């Protein structure tokens, strides 16, 4: 018997990844049990920036909670605005003017593009490519300027109101948005040529980091993570809200389930969001942007209400319980990345550490939204 | 429609209340209320029909029973008053005041409600499963063996409400600090 066989007892050690680590994009910590370069077990440790938004919701009025929604997923804050106003409008039975819904969709989709652009840059940065981040930020900056002119803020938007939006778009917004789309359309082929077709990127992502459809179901994964595993699920199509049924767009689905599939889903979604913005601008009706009869003091009828919207990371659901007063009795925020990250422990078993970091990047984590 | 199949499968389980709320108003298709010991059976039905788990959460109904009692007492008092007035108008002796209103059934301890949300990828069907446990002994069986994704949701609910998920493999604080012994979403929580 060789000496080698005798030492085959498993020798593992623990690596602590984060909470301060550039690859975790915020303060996420992962306890990794390693067998050499391979991961035996991974346990994400959450809560470093937990703010208890749900408790905050219980001690302020319905309208006062609005700014909180822009501070969870700070990359796609307008979708969170959208989710919160729609659930409260459902509870209180408020009708929204059509122009306001169009403006909501246009701004939320621009915000989705900006979120995907930031993910694109940061993800390639995780894989060791620095330059695309600078290009992506350059494009994203144009969107932030546009949204700033309408909403008044660059990141933590609090633009939607129960019954409409805070103010109408100005004369520069539509030409600016169309010019931006023209510009991004010209740059997308460059991104695909330089990054998507890059052999190093493909070697890092293809056939690595598999997530099966059954795993998605058991963990409740939604958004690009589910669509990269061949699940055709998009709340905008599946459970249509706002004016999405009137717009023509596709839901990109890639069946393979590896990190590359999730990459391709998001890159295609940028194109689809541009289509949505163009159509919505073409159809944008005239009229008020705020419901005339929206009550100043809201007191939704007793009961509980659920509404979900599609954010850049998946399905964001809100369950509100009203006791008929001007403050929510209970406000549950179901954030998509919380569920998406929960499958990480199972998905990364037996992977090389650098591949697991690529898998983590392909989940597109935003920590304040997980920790809430 | 998937909801009908689920309704039939669920009806086979004992002691179950199924409501079909108005979807446009409430945002779900089926609202199933079960006893805690039937929870695992109900979730197994949903699992076998291909549902995915959206979320688990709790609601603290502190003061609900007192409010119900007060409401019942007010109703009884109003009825007695009306009867007395009617008797006085007819020129009769007022009837003897009725006995104190009957105590509401069940224990006087308020409930914690645990709410499970499920949905489907293929055809839209939102199912809400609810169960109630008393505040002084909040114990619910875990469903993390059926849905591994429930693991974190149950840990979060334990953090916020102190609900114990019996059989959970690792019920340590998830979002709160690791030594947290408080439950901030309880209505009587004082920081």
Can you give a write-up of this model?
The complex is a heterodimer of chains A (372) and B (191). Chain A is α+β, with helices and mostly antiparallel strands. Chain A has 16 helices and eight strands. In chain A, strand 7 and strand 8 form a beta hairpin. The mean pLDDT of chain A is 89. Chain B is of the alpha/beta class and 191 residues long. In chain B, 32% of the residues lie in helices and 21% in strands. Chain B is built from five helices and seven strands. In chain B, a hairpin with a 7-residue loop joins strand 4 and strand 5. At the A-B interface, helix 2, helix 9, strand 6, strand 7 and strand 8 of A face helix 2, strand 3 and helix 5 of B.
Q: Mind telling me the C-alpha Rg of chain A?
A: 22 Å
Task: Identify low-pLDDT runs of chain A.
Answer: none
Determine the fraction of residues in helical runs of chain B and give it as a percent range.
25-40%
Average pLDDT, all residues of chain A: 89
CATH class of chain A: Mainly Alpha
Chains forming the largest contact? A-B, 43 and 33 residues
Largest sheet of chain A: 3 strands, antiparallel
The spatial strand order of the largest sheet of chain B comes to 1-2-5-4-3
Number of helices of chain A: 16
Which second-level CATH architecture of chain A applies? Orthogonal Bundle
Helix amount of chain A:
40-55%
Write down the Rg of chain B. Answer: 22 Å
Strand content of chain B: 15-25%
Taken from the alpha-carbon principal axes, the silhouette of chain B is globular
Helix and strand pattern of chain A: HEEEHHHHHEEHHHHHHEEEHHHH
- Could you tell me the mean pLDDT of chain B? 84
CATH topology of chain A: Cytochrome-c3 Hydrogenase, chain B
Total DSSP E strands of chain B: 7
Measured by DSSP, the beta-strand proportion of chain A falls in 5-15%
User: Could you give the order of the helices and strands of chain B?
Assistant: HEHEHEHEEEHE
